[in-house]
Specification:
The chain is mostly beta strands. It has 4 helices and 14 strands. A 6-stranded antiparallel beta barrel has the order 1-2-13-12-9-14.
């Protein structure tokens, strides 16, 4: 199991090896296994994880049945996501997963979430256009997009042309992050660098093969000793 769900709390800073590092704080887990997929029945190995809480009165009867939630229960999970698992790994419905079960300081991770919405933005802000010249009488073209296509042929603007429009609110994955600290008591995960979204944004945190890195470091240490 290499993935857990969480929400963004905010950012702070810490010092690692004497260097100041920006840190994102994520409230991750505990997650509950709500469904198990297997090769025999479904054709692939995966589990569905549930995270967070919401009022049972705001939960549909269909979702309550799926979660096997009792009718008199006061709370239900607020987020559901399916996560791949390795063949042979056994997890049962109702089992709880915490950050300490998956992550350790030094692990490489990738974080997926929905970025902040910027609203309607022009070409300069949205795509990094240079804008028009500021001399030779161009008094009102500093942030204009310029030409957007040809004339008679094709006689239209091609689909996908970079122009002004709604910016942000898109799913993004930030890679190359490292786990700085794991606090099991508060379910807090401290991660180097920034992660997508505003405070409270739902996130998926995935561990990226830390075992290979540990082996490489051990080999380097052995060479140094020799």
């Amino acid at each position: 199991m290499n993935t857990i769900l969480g929400t963004k709390v905010g950012m702070t800073q810490t010092f690692v090896d004497g260097k100041r590092v920006g840190v994102s704080i994520i409230n991750a887990g505990p997650c509950i296994v709500t469904q198990v997929k297997n090769n025999e029945k479904d054709g692939y190995q995966a589990v569905q994880l549930g995270f967070g809480t919401r009022s049972a009165k705001n939960t549909s009867a269909a979702l309550k049945g799926h979660l096997k939630t009792a009718k008199d229960a006061k709370e239900a999970v607020s987020f559901l996501r399916e996560v791949d698992i390795e063949e042979g790994e056994e997890l049962k419905v109702g089992e709880s997963l915490s950050i300490a079960d998956i992550f350790a300081p030094g692990d490489d991770i990738a974080v997926t979430g929905i970025g902040k919405g910027k609203g309607f933005a022009g070409g300069v802000k949205r795509w990094g256009f240079a804008g028009g010249p500021k001399t030779h009488g161009q008094s009102d073209r500093h942030r204009a997009p310029g030409s957007i296509g040809q004339g008679t042929t094709p006689g239209r603007v091609y689909k996908g042309k970079k122009m002004a429009g709604r910016m942000g609110s898109e799913t993004a994955t930030v890679k190359g992050l490292k786990v700085i600290a794991v606090d099991s008591d508060t379910n807090s995960l401290h991660v180097s660098g920034s992660v997508p979204g505003r405070k409270g944004t739902f996130l998926m945190i995935k561990r990226v093969s830390p075992k290979q890195e540990v082996q490489v470091k051990e080999e380097v240490n052995e060479k140094d000793e020799n």
